[in-house]
Amino acid sequence: MTRTPVIRPTANSDCTAVVRIARQLVAAADTYAFEPDVTDAALWAYWSPDTDTQGDGFVTEFDGLVVAMFVIRPNHPGPASHIANASYAVDIAARGKGIGRSIGKQSLLLAAKLGYEAMQFNIVISTNVAAVRLWQSLGFDIVGTIPAGFRMPDGTLVAHHIMHRTL
Ligand SMILES: CC(C)(COP(=O)(O)OP(=O)(O)OC[C@H]1O[C@@H](n2cnc3c(N)ncnc32)[C@H](O)[C@@H]1OP(=O)(O)O)[C@@H](O)C(=O)NCCC(=O)NCCS
Q1: pLDDT greater at residue 162 or residue 49
Q2: What single string gives the DSSP state of each residue in 69-94?
Q3: pLDDT of 51 over the 60 cut
Q4: 128 lines ligand 1 (CB under 6 A)
Q5: Is the confidence at residue 115, as pLDDT, over 90?
Q6: Cα of 52 from ligand 1 centre, angstroms
Q7: Sign, Cα dihedral of 62, 28, 26, 129
Q8: Interatomic CA distance for residues 115 and 81, integer angstroms
Q9: What are the residue ranges spanned by the domains of the chain?
Q10: Protein residue whose Cα sits closest to atom 25 of ligand 1
Q11: Does the model's pTM come out above 0.85?
């Protein structure tokens, strides 16, 4: 059993835990643009990219449980593939304890190690205060804002940001 949080590559045996956390995001529908009827297989494929999709998936394990996950992938192929994109999620029960900051920092180090020169987030919902603050504190700038770019569960449209930093 792991007594301190450990970040490690995602394994096939993490599927159930990863899908469980991903389902929290789908249910809340206020941070990621997943279809409400997205399948478990599609969620697993998103959070555990393999060599075919050129992505790298990681989980944080604490006390033997997966409590967070992130993926790093090229933001675009070919001539734009030096810029990474990444997605992050912390289990609702484990939020507000520094795990998001830990995986954010680690993902920047890993992305640099993987050869990326910058990181870009394409859709950070403006109402996602925790994420916007976290990314700004880790050196990301808001380089663009899409007005009315995301429909919240109550039907209201809110802006989303494109955030970027060099590595
Ligand atoms: C965003 C997310 C990854 C943050 O993870 P976390 O473990 O809760 O974050 P941490 O405890 O490490 O807090 C990091 C920073 O986030 C901000 N933050 C966290 N919770 C916050 C809250 N409820 N309100 C405002 N800011 C908050 C703070 O700036 C905090 O900085 P601090 O370390 O100086 O206190 C997590 O809330 C999550 O998984 N949300 C759903 C998925 C998501 O939004 N992913 C990112 C999409 S861009």
Answers
A1: 162
A2: EEEEEESSSGGGTTEEEEEEEE-GGG
A3: no
A4: yes
A5: yes
A6: 31
A7: negative
A8: 10
A9: 6-120
A10: 130
A11: yes
pLDDT in tens, 3-39: 678 999 999 999 999 999 999 999 999 999 999 999 9
Q: Read off the pLDDT band of 49 (50, 70, 90).
A: confident
Ligand 1 atom closest to 123 (CA): 48
Residue count (the chain)? 167
Q: Which atom of ligand 1 lies closest to the CA of 128?
A: 44
Tokens of 1: 């059993």
The tokens 């697993």 sit on which residue? 44
In this structure, the number of other CB atoms found within 10 A of the CB of residue 160 comes to 21
Q: Looking at the domain that runs over 6-120, which CATH code has it been given?
A: 3.40.630.30
Q: What is the CA(134)–ligand 1 centre distance, in A?
A: 6
Alpha-carbon distances, residue 37 vs 26, 42, 43, 88, 156 (angstroms): 9, 10, 11, 20, 20
User: Is any atom of ligand 1 closer than 6 Å to the C-beta of 120?
Assistant: no
* 92 in contact with ligand 1, CB cutoff 6 A: no
The two three-digit tokens of residue 46, written as one number: 């998103």
Pocket test for ligand 1, best of 20, 43, 95 (most atoms within 8 A of CB): 95
